[in-house]
Design a protein that fits this description.
Layout lengths: L1 H16 L10 E10 L8 E8 L2 E6 L6 E6 L4 E4 L1 E7 L3 H4 L5 H4 L3 E6 L10 H7 L4 H11 L4 E4 L1 E2 H8 L9 H17 L3 E5 L10 H13 L3 E5 L7 H15 L3 E3 L12 H14 L4 E5 L7 E2 L13 H7 L3 H13 L6 H4 L7 E5 L13 H8 L3 H10 L3 E4 L4 H8 L4 E3 L16 H16 L5 H8 L1 H6 L16 E4 L20 E6 L2 E5 L2 E2 L20 E2 L9 H14 L3 E8 L2 E12 L4 E2 L6 E2 L4 H14 L9 H4 L21 H5 L17 H8 L7 H9 L15 H15 L3 H10 L8 E2 L19 E3 L9 E3 L11 H4 L1 E3 L1 H9 L12 H8 L18 E2 L4 E4 L6 E9 L2 E7 L4 E7 L10 H14 L14
């Protein structure tokens, strides 16, 4: 009894000491309960719970179920660090769809190593027009802002830089060309690549000398990177190829990693033991050399690799154009049948067409027979196998030669320096995914060689697939289950974890992987890929995260420093390339900051004068121009718009003119009540190709074309009946301004709206990158679509450059502006009685609640906000006044302009729109930003407007 009394006294004292409040313990995001932990170090497994929060492993031991927001019951299951695919080729399929990672996640892969001679960057200008990136830094930006289901590391491809500088020719680079190649490698390393990679059996890399490769690898080494290689030979000259790889490492002063180590060809199988001995000897001497394997005896390659490299000296296109020449075919056949001293895959598979599986073929004669051997296909079609071979070469087929022996797979697997790969990465519909390793490499390794044959222990296998591999890609913050490391964690059923992919059905998902967690978020749950995209680019040692810096003059006042922190933190967490911010207080510009890059490739920073596409923030500008015309007596708000604009409707297929269009007024256009609902039908301003084709004019359709076509279509609702946001309505207003002012829309706005308030840099934007203005930022969006422009119509282009017609968006979304100039525009209305571009009554009317039923909710009460004349408006509450704002959104653009009743105006402009977690950056920022502004204790008295 006394003990109980003392206990409650102690509790009472604690409550008193803490002011009567007890802090709640912060929950883990994920708790994994009761699993057998195989921690990646090679140590024996143990039972433990694992607690994960904010992307990190924060506790290992006993954790209560109630301590986790999400609890995974791992009883009877293995908990291990995520596996690392040491040759995952490319992360680009993940930009198209996260589902392309399903083959990886079903195997427990959480990180892929990308680049085997070829890499997605750097790229030439023509390729960049299709993808949107040219440099490695830009490519990484696209991956990060899109988000991925897995992490990625990237090497700079030797083939990539050689082709960019030399093309496909068989010669050495000049000193000047080698200097250019080094510069490309250097850019990739500084962007965060982890090394240089080669693929030396394929043209044109096969033409490179050891010295050339070493010179480039040395650049990677100088930046802390490594040399990764698909060696020059995996058969007759396997040992010599290993010597060359190690020699390059020594010359470049960099570690060496050998991709998919193998001894190809029965005559060479005995060399595997010598190869391993050679590597172990070098390691014993202090040289860091490692390798990976995939657990199959069939490798995979393009069938053209069976032809001697000398025939590709003028490029593959030239060879294909001559491939039907009987004399050339006879020469190629003789070389394949008799010559050694090169990577002769025909000899490696015993000169037996029955040992060459055809994985994929573009030729429809052969495509249905994929998964069978070339010999079987030739027999089925009644062809000579050599005829089939040359036809498959012409069809750019992918094949799987049986060139290895399982004994060597086992021999290699036992080595502590060996890690594993798929040699495919995200399946993504690529021909190389026709090898079952794409879907089965890691479960096959565990099921066949660990569980069934006991070649190595589970602990060793997991260690080689995680910690060993993590060290090789320098991802030292992951690869083990340890407190403080990144939470890349997998949970699987060891007894059921198995591969199902075969030659006949190479894309069957593995079984037994229960959960996959990447950076603390669940991406695979009981056979289903989730919508989360927490994967990111894991950058190499030369990368410096100094992009998000504050460009401030003068220094930020102490009371506004939290704003600097808010923006830099937000940009890093959402992978935003660049941002410009302007904040005013009672007409004074008190905060004008620029963060990040206006152009990543050129490392050009954003400045306070940088111009951004402001998208729909253009609408308040157009509204002011219309109200000026009303003040001039040229227009009334209730005038029917088509009493002013005269267009001949374009009617198709016997359609009739919708007479309700004659009722549409200027006021209804300003308030988005004109009768068009893009959610019900479509957004007219993004129908450039459709309308151009309908009129028989070159794409894209311009504003006049759009109006003619829209006049021929029925309205979605009776004008004035309800609110529905319409870009097209503001397109019409732009034409009204032109008709009544007898000036172009741009000239009128510049002269009468912008110049009187001191704005001289704003202008209308252009669609294509090559027409970008000097002070304009570059726009970053990970998406692509078909071009709407006649010159390259239908071809893939970046969403931000050519997938829509900016020139036609003038009055509803076409303006370019700096944040400072938009702040000037906003402050023009702070005091209606002193506004220099509108009369006081017009300013007040611009924000008034529209009359009528559309402004009432279902219960007949006024809505909490409304769209007035060019602005969204919300009453500020008991203190009176209104908050007026507008957002803007286009691919590569996210903007917001806010006017608060406390005399403060805010402008934020981003040169990207999306992140892995949000669709509109400024909408995600708005809440934290307004909260931060409310917490400012005192506002500076300076005015920065004169500086800009």
């Amino acid at each position: 009894m006394i003990q109980r009394y003392v206990f409650w006294i102690a509790i009472l004292q604690f409550v008193l000491w803490t002011g009567g409040e007890m802090e709640a313990v912060e929950l883990f995001d994920i708790v994994i309960k009761g699993g057998r932990v195989v921690d990646g170090t090679g140590a024996p497994w143990y039972y433990a719970d694992v607690g994960i929060r904010e992307g990190k492993i924060l506790q290992i031991g006993r954790i209560e179920t109630t301590a986790g927001k999400h609890v995974i019951d791992a009883a009877g299951l293995i908990v291990a660090p995520g596996f690392i695919d040491m040759m995952g080729q490319t992360a680009s399929p993940l930009l198209e769809s996260s589902t392309t990672a399903a083959n990886l996640l079903a195997q427990g892969i959480t990180t892929i190593n990308c680049g085997e001679g070829v890499s997605e960057a750097p790229q030439g200008d023509e390729a960049a027009k299709r993808t949107g990136w040219r440099t490695m830094a830009e490519y990484f930006q696209f991956l990060d802002m899109h988000g991925m289901a897995v992490n990625a590391v990237q090497t700079v491809g030797h083939t990539q830089v050689r082709q960019m500088v030399l093309g496909s020719v068989d010669r050495r680079p000049t000193d000047q060309e080698l200097t250019r190649m080094k510069a490309l490698v250097r850019e990739g390393m500084e962007a965060g690549a982890i090394g240089l990679s080669t693929a030396l059996i394929y043209p044109p890399a096969v033409y490179a000398t050891t010295e050339e490769i070493a010179e480039l690898a040395a650049v990677a080494g100088q930046h802390g990177g490594r040399y990764f290689t698909h060696m020059r030979n995996e058969g007759e000259q396997l040992l010599e190829a290993i010597d060359e790889a190690m020699q390059i490492g020594r010359m470049a002063k960099t570690p060496v990693h050998i991709f998919h180590l193998k001894a190809a060809g029965r005559q060479n199988w005995g060399k595997m033991e010598l190869a391993i001995a050679k590597i172990k000897s070098a390691r014993a001497a202090g040289e860091q050399i490692t390798a990976d394997i995939y657990p199959y005896i069939n490798n995979g390659l393009g069938i053209a690799a069976l032809i001697h490299p000398r025939h590709f000296a003028e490029g593959e296109t030239k060879l294909n154009s001559r491939l039907n020449d009987p004399q050339l075919q006879a020469t190629i056949r003789k070389e394949m049948e008799t010559e050694i001293g090169w990577e002769n895959w025909y000899r490696h598979m015993g000169s037996d067409w029955d040992k060459l599986i055809v994985g994929s073929a573009a030729d429809q004669r052969y495509a249905p027979l994929a998964g069978q051997s070339l010999g079987a296909i030739a027999k089925t079609l009644g062809e000579d196998p050599w005829v089939t071979f040359f036809n498959l070469v012409a069809a750019n087929s992918f094949v799987l030669p049986e060139s290895m022996t399982e004994a060597n797979v086992i021999r290699a697997m036992k080595q502590e320096f060996i890690s594993f790969c798929t040699d495919v990465g995200p399946a993504g519909g690529s021909s190389i995914a026709s090898h079952p390793r794409a879907f089965g490499a890691f479960p096959r390794m565990l099921a066949r060689y660990v569980r069934d044959q006991g070649v190595i222990t589970l602990e060793q296998a997991v260690s080689q697939a995680s910690a060993v591999a993590a060290n090789e890609i320098m991802a030292y913050d992951r690869g083990r289950i340890a407190i403080g490391l990144a939470a890349d964690v997998i949970v699987f059923d060891y007894d059921r974890f198995t591969d199902r992919a075969t030659f006949a059905e190479p894309q069957r998902l593995a079984e037994g992987m229960k959960q996959v967690i990447v950076n603390g978020e669940l991406v695979w749950d009981n056979g289903t890929i989730t919508s989360r995209k927490p994967g990111r680019v894991l950058r190499g040692p030369a990368y410096r995260d100094d992009a998000v810096t504050v460009k401030a003059s003068p220094a930020t006042p102490a009371t506004l420093l939290p704003l600097d922190h808010l923006f830099t933190t937000f940009m890093r967490s959402h992978h935003v390339p660049g941002c410009s911010v302007a904040i005013t207080d009672h007409g004074r510009l008190v905060y004008a900051r620029a963060f990040g890059f206006a152009d990543i490739a050129e490392k050009k920073p954003v400045t306070q004068s940088s111009l951004f596409r402001i998208a729909s923030v253009s609408k308040p500008i157009t509204a002011v121009a219309v109200l000026q015309l009303v003040e001039q007596g040229k227009l009334k708000l209730d005038d029917p718009v088509f009493n002013i604009l005269k267009y001949e409707p374009h009617l198709e297929d016997g359609a009739k003119f919708d007479v309700r269009q004659n009722q549409i007024t200027i006021r209804q256009l300003l308030q988005h009540r004109g009768g068009w609902d893009r959610d019900q039908s479509f957004d007219a301003m993004f129908q450039s190709v459709r309308f151009a084709d309908s009129l028989g004019v070159a794409s894209p359709a311009g504003p006049d074309d759009v109006i003619r076509c829209m006049l021929g279509l029925p309205l979605d609702f009776t004008p004035g009946e309800r609110y529905a946001y319409s870009n097209y309505g503001y397109c019409l207003l732009g034409r009204v301004i032109e008709v009544l002012s007898k000036q172009s829309y741009e000239d009128y706005v510049k002269e009468h709206v912008l110049a009187p308030i001191g704005i001289h840099s704003m202008r209308l934007g252009k669609s294509r990158l090559e027409r970008r203005f000097d002070e304009e930022v570059r726009y970053y969006d990970p998406g692509t679509d078909q071009s709407v422009f006649a010159v390259d119509r239908g071809q893939k282009v970046p969403l931000a450059y050519g997938a829509f017609n900016v020139e036609a968006m003038d009055a509803h979304g076409g303006w370019l502006a700096s944040a400072v100039d938009l702040a000037r525009f906003a402050t023009a209305f702070d005091n209606p009685d002193k506004c220099s571009i509108l009369k006081p009554q017009s300013v007040r009317e611009m924000y008034e609640r529209p009359a009528g039923k559309p402004e009432l909710d279902a219960q007949g009460n006024p809505k909490d906000h409304w769209y007035a004349l060019g602005w969204l408006v919300r009453p500020a509450g008991k203190d009176g006044g209104e908050t007026c704002w507008h957002t803007g959104s286009l691919p590569g653009t996210s903007t917001i302009l806010i006017r608060r009743p406390d005399g403060r105006d805010i402008v934020v402009l981003f040169n990207s729109r999306v992140s892995p977690t949000v669709d509109h950056l400024t909408r995600a920022l708005e809440g934290p930003l307004l909260k931060s502004l409310d917490e400012v204790s005192s506002w500076p008295q300076h005015d920065l407007f004169p500086q800009f």
